[in-house]
């Protein structure tokens, strides 16, 4: 056909095809064209179905390439390491993330197998999951497993292996997903070590710890408290209530307090007695530390218990010691008062009588020498006046040493006379508010209170430079409170307390000890330029112990 067309075009341009030469050319063209015309037509007939088949295949191929593009993009750009393996676990394709994590190039990975990077092939969990996977029991498994880096170090990863395709029930391709969790594992290990340390501290703390649910049942208890009780954890947790190990008296105390504890209120120093497994008891001091409750779960109350056995023994010994000290102090006060009374009687009966006789003799001599000179009479008068002053001071000293007026006129009137005498001689005004406590205390306690007021007034006169004092004796239901306040110059109490030896003085210390021996309390407050306030309280039953 091509030759015929060529010859026709040639003779059309150079001569008439109907000429003899043209006829010869046409016949020649037909001779060449006839042998190939039929094979060409057969070839076109054969090729046409192939062209149609290719056209049909091209469209699905393009669609397949379009559908594979996103998955290829995911594989290449995934932040997780991804590997596609054949049925022999040989690496076929790896993504850049895998190469970055494990330090291999893509070319190096083509010679790797899964066994080359698994850190521990004999891991029981890994072997079990792989067995089930190869047996066809599961199509995918995932576990945390250490894998080998190119440099030999171990990396903790979240390893997932998925079966991609099977042919005649035989695996062809596997997909491996690898997420580097090394940092998370290091954090978990560090946290686990800290939690283990906290748990060890909890279990071996020097005090007991336990947690109770809303019903008071143990949900947690440390080894220390279990050691006190002699039980095992299995015997206690979830099996026993806290009230089960309390004595009857302690049960009442705890049952009255537990509702408030369960509601979130705090408690401190709840003294209870626990019953050990062998029947003996152990005293504790219970403190509530916290209350926790997760959403959907019941709240849990947490308690701290301190073994107070040694403390209780020490408290008992201290009470005995204090009682002995009080008895000794009381005996010392009694002995001192007896000595003062003896000296007072000697002054009154002995020296007082001698002074009286001396006065009588001087009066007699004065009358006998009445005719003598005036100067002699003046000397007699002066001597008699001095004798009167000596007699007064001796009687006054005798009364101070032995306030016999307490027995004669009672505590209240005796205290008023003390205040009046203080006002007269010291010219310091006293405002007194005194309740009647004559029937509240025995005489020895009244004497102690009287002496305390005497000491306070002596200190005011000696140190305060005050011009006004207020004294209060207030009788209350089970105690008597005494207060004495001055408007003097005051002092720095801390400075006085820091002094040592004689510089500190014994007045305040002695007063405080006397009050404490009676089971009371003593308090003093002072500030420069404002004055001083002394407060002491004595219980009504101070001598009944």
List the helices and strands and how they pair.
Blueprint: H1 2-14, H2 20-77, E1 81-86, E2 91-94, H3 96-102, H4 106-109, H5 114-117, H6 124-134, E3 140-148, E4 154-167, E5 170-180, H7 182-203, E6 208-212, E7 218-221, H8 223-229, H9 233-236, H10 248-262, E8 270-275, E9 281-292, E10 300-307, H11 309-368, H12 374-401, H13 405-409, H14 411-426, E11 429-434, H15 443-464, E12 468-475, E13 479-486, H16 493-498, H17 507-517, E14 521-527, E15 531-539
Parallel strand pairs: 11-12
Antiparallel strand pairs: 1-2, 1-5, 3-4, 4-5, 6-7, 6-10, 8-9, 9-10, 12-13, 13-15, 14-15
Helix pairs in contact: 1-2, 11-12, 14-15, 15-17
Can you characterise this structure?
- Helix content is 54%, strand content 21%.
- The protein has 17 helices and 15 strands.
- Strands 2-1-5-4-3 form a 5-stranded antiparallel sheet.
- α15 links the parallel β11 and β12.
- It is rod-shaped and about 210 Å long.
- The mean pLDDT is 78.
Label this structure with key terms.
15 strands; about 55% helix; about 550 residues; alpha+beta; five-stranded antiparallel β-sheet
Helix share of residues?
40-55%
Weakly predicted, low-confidence segments? none
Give the overall shape, derived from the CA principal axes.
rod-shaped
Class by helix and strand content? alpha+beta
What summary fits the major beta sheet?
5 strands, antiparallel
Give the strand content: 15-25%
Give the N-to-C terminal Cα separation: 145 Å
* Overall number of strands: 15
Please, what is the oligomeric state? single chain
Please give the count of helices: 17
Evaluate the radius of gyration. 57 Å
Overall pLDDT confidence: 78
Strand order of the largest sheet: 2-1-5-4-3
């Amino acid at each position: 056909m091509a030759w015929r067309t060529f010859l026709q075009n040639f003779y059309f341009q150079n001569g008439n095809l109907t000429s003899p030469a043209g006829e010869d050319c046409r016949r020649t063209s037909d001779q060449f064209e006839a042998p190939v015309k039929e094979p060409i037509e057969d070839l076109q007939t054969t090729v046409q179905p192939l062209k149609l088949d290719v056209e049909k295949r091209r469209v699905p191929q393009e669609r397949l390439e379009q559908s594979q593009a996103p998955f290829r993009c995911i594989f290449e750009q995934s932040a997780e390491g991804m590997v596609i393996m054949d049925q022999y676990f040989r690496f076929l394709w790896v993504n850049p993330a895998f190469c970055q994590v494990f330090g291999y190039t893509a070319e190096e990975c083509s010679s790797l197998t899964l066994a080359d990077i698994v850190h521990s092939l004999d891991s029981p969990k890994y072997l079990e999951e792989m067995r089930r996977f190869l047996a066809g029991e599961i199509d995918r498994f995932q576990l945390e497993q250490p894998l080998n880096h190119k440099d030999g170090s171990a990396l903790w990863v979240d390893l997932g292996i998925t079966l991609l395709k099977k042919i005649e029930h035989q695996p062809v391709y596997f997909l491996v997903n690898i997420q580097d969790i090394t940092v998370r594992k290091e954090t978990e290990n560090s946290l686990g070590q800290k939690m283990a340390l906290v748990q060890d501290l909890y279990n071996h703390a020097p005090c007991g710890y336990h947690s109770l649910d809303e019903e008071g049942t143990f949900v947690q208890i440390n080894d220390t408290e279990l050691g006190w009780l002699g039980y095992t954890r299995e015997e206690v947790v979830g099996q026993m209530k806290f009230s089960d190990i309390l004595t009857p008296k302690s049960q009442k105390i705890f049952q009255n307090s537990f509702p408030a504890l369960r509601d979130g209120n705090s408690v401190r120093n709840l003294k209870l007695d626990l019953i050990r497994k062998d029947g003996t008891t152990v005293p504790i001091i219970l403190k509530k530390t916290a209350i926790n409750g997760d959403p959907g779960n019941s709240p849990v109350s947490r308690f701290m218990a301190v073994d107070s056995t040694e403390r209780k023994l020490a408290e008992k010994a201290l009470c005995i010691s204090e009682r002995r000290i009080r008895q000794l102090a009381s005996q010392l006060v009694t002995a001192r008062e007896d000595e003062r009374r003896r000296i007072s009687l000697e002054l009154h009966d002995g020296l007082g009588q001698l002074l009286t006789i001396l006065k009588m003799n001087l009066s007699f001599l004065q009358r006998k020498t009445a005719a003598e000179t005036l100067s002699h009479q003046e000397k007699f008068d002066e001597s008699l006046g001095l004798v009167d002053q000596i007699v007064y001071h001796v009687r006054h000293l005798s009364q101070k040493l032995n306030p016999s007026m307490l027995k004669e006129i009672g505590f209240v009137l005796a205290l008023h006379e003390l205040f009046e005498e203080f006002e007269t001689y010291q010219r310091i005004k006293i405002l007194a508010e005194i309740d009647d406590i004559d029937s509240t205390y025995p005489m020895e306690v009244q004497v102690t209170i009287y002496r305390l007021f005497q000491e306070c007034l002596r200190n005011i006169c000696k140190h305060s430079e005050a011009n006004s004092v207020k004294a209060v004796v207030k009788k209350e239901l089970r105690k008597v409170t005494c207060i004495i306040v001055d408007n003097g110059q005051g002092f720095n109490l801390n400075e006085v307390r820091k002094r040592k030896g004689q510089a500190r003085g014994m007045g305040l210390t002695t007063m405080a000890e006397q009050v404490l021996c009676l089971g009371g309390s003593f308090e003093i407050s002072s500030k420069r330029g404002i004055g001083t306030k002394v407060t002491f309280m004595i219980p009504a039953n101070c001598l009944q112990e």
